């Protein structure tokens, strides 16, 4: 499997630090509003990377934070006259709903910056002890950028060029040793959330949060660190400087970055008014379509969002879903069980699409080509099946389409809400089965209901049920 590493600017063979395991950190959103469809791109893309790694047999420890202390959160809290925590908790809950709609798996762990302050104080103290950081008179703690010799290795920036860009920017009140130095800890302002520290009552800088959360939940050395390309500089560059200066080890082996999402070929921004939240999109489209649309492009390419492209994605996804449904329908009505020789040969032939799918995904997660392989498989299934096909052949083909879709995070069949009367009917059937001592069927019905989240309870007054 090859992955493009921003650090080396090359596609490299993926070799995990520990055999069979992947430690992966993805920078999560700042939670001061509903997430927008730009924020959704890294979520969908890196969830697909995770799913593919899991398909390949890796045990993936996937950590993604919520940045829940930030100027924008504080500003929103002041506007609404509520606490910053109320804002961040509200939008974390909303973000999780959107993630579910997009079928983004919950991370192994979603740490919150505000719950990890202790680790941040520890890392900042170590950096001061090692001479990589210093407190200024007002209690701000800065990272001594020039002291970290490899600064710029991720963004491929040169320190002197950066310095030239900074020369005229002298912010009043700052007493940095060098204009390149960046903030690790800053003093509180009136009305802002703050924590005690050896330097001043204040709060952490954004970059230190991720260095600390990644270290706590994944260790000092990780396999993959990822996020949108705007994070390469300064966020990830600064994370590398902090973590490597503190731990004395290479921080992440592979750095993956997704390209930006634009709207109607223009940068998406609030001021241009071309700005969509995931929630707004969900009012018009099933979020599965948004996911399918995003995976239709390579994750590193810029991606343009427009109504026409969403319509095209909808049609494409329908083609796959219809193909799968057709197979299911045929299987239900098929009269023959097992594959005949001809079908066995065709099944063997369809292995070709697995090869195509895997080759595409192994080439730096080329989901666009992987989707083409799914289309080819659906076309193959449409041409080679009919009323005379065996259940085995139809189910095999359906299973393979389902497997591909699962890796892409596309749900083929929406679970339909089971109606109360259907539940009552099944319970009556279960009672009848028990009377006839057909316990196998009775158990089957119980599990069937459990799958739908219906829990049965046998009481003296009869069977009671509830939705779990
Ligand atoms: P933020 O909440 O701004 O820290 O962003 C959370 C994640 O969304 C980061 O990985 C960003 O790089 C990513 N992101 C923000 N805007 C876009 C966009 N328009 N296209 C793609 N990714 C984006
Ligand atoms: Zn981060």
Helix-strand blueprint:
Elements: E1 2-5, E2 10-13, E3 21-26, H1 37-55, E4 59-64, H2 71-80, H3 84-101, H4 117-129, E5 133-135, E6 141-143, H5 159-166, E7 182-187, E8 202-204, H6 206-218, E9 222-228, H7 232-247, E10 252-258, E11 261-263, E12 266-267, H8 278-284, H9 287-295, E13 303-305, H10 307-333, H11 341-349, H12 351-362, H13 367-384, H14 391-408, H15 420-435, H16 439-451, E14 454-459, E15 462-467
Parallel strand pairs: 3-4, 3-9, 9-10, 11-13
Antiparallel strand pairs: 1-2, 5-6, 6-7, 7-8, 11-12, 14-15
Helix pairs in contact: 2-3, 4-6, 6-7, 9-10, 10-13, 10-14, 12-13, 13-14, 15-16
This protein binds adenosine monophosphate and zinc ion (ZN).
Give the amount of beta strand, in percent.
Answer: 5-15%
Strand order of the largest sheet: 4-3-9-10
What spatial form do the alpha-carbon principal axes imply? globular
Whole-number tally of structural domains: 3
Q: Low-confidence segments, ≥5 residues, pLDDT <50?
A: none
Mean pLDDT: 94
- For the terminal residues, how far apart are their CA atoms? 41 Å
Under CATH at level 1, the class of the largest domain stands as: Alpha Beta
The CATH topology of the largest domain comes to Rossmann fold
Structure ligands: adenosine monophosphate, zinc ion
**Rg estimate, integer Å:** 27 Å
CATH superfamily of the largest domain: HUPs
Helices, by number, come to 16
Number of strands: 15
Which quaternary structure do these chains form? single chain
CATH architecture of the largest domain: 3-Layer(aba) Sandwich
């Amino acid at each position: 499997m090859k992955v493009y590493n921003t650090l080396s600017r090359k596609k490299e063979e993926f070799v995990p630090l520990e055999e069979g395991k992947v430690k992966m950190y993805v920078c999560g959103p700042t939670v001061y509003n509903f997430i927008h469809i730009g924020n959704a791109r890294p979520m969908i893309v890196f969830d697909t990377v995770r799913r593919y790694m899991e398909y390949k047999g890796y045990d993936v420890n996937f950590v993604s934070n919520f940045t829940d202390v930030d100027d924008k959160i504080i500003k929103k809290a002041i506007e609404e006259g509520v606490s910053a925590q109320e804002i961040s908790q509200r939008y974390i809950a909303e973000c999780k709903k959107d993630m579910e709609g997009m079928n983004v798996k919950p991370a192994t762990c979603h740490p919150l910056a505000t719950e990890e302050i202790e680790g941040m104080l520890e890392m900042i103290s170590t950096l001061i002890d090692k001479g990589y950081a210093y407190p200024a008179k007002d209690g701000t703690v800065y990272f001594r950028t020039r002291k970290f010799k490899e600064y710029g290795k991720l963004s491929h920036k040169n320190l002197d060029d950066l310095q030239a860009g900074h020369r005229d920017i002298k912010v009043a009140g700052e007493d940095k040793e060098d204009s390149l130095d960046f903030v690790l800890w800053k003093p509180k302002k009136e009305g802002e959330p703050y924590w005690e520290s050896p330097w001043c009552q204040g709060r952490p800088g954004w970059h230190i949060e991720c260095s600390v959360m990644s270290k706590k939940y994944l260790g000092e050395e990780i396999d993959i660190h990822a996020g949108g390309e705007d994070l390469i500089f300064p966020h990830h560059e600064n994370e590398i400087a902090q973590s490597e200066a503190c731990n004395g080890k290479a921080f992440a082996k592979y750095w993956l970055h997704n390209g930006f999402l634009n709207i109607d070929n223009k940068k998406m921004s609030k001021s241009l008014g071309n700005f969509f939240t995931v929630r707004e999109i969900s009012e018009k489209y099933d979020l599965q379509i948004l996911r399918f649309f995003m995976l239709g492009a390579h994750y590193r390419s810029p991606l343009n969002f427009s109504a026409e492209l969403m319509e095209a994605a909808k049609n494409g996804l329908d083609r796959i879903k219809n193909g799968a449904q057709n197979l299911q329908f045929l299987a239900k009505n098929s009269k023959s069980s097992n594959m005949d020789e001809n079908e066995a040969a065709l099944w063997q032939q369809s292995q070709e699409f697995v090869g195509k799918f895997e080759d595409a995904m192994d080439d730096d997660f080329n989901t666009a080509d992987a989707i083409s392989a799914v289309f080819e498989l659906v076309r193959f299934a449409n041409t080679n099946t009919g009323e005379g096909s065996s259940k085995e052949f139809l189910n095999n083909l359906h299973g393979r389409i389902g497997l591909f879709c699962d890796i892409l995070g596309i749900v083929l069949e929406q679970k339909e809400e089971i109606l109360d009367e259907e539940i009552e009917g099944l319970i009556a059937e279960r009672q009848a089965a028990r009377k006839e001592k057909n316990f196998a069927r009775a158990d089957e019905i119980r599990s069937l209901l459990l799958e739908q989240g219906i829990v049965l309870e046998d009481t003296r007054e009869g069977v009671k049920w509830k939705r779990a």
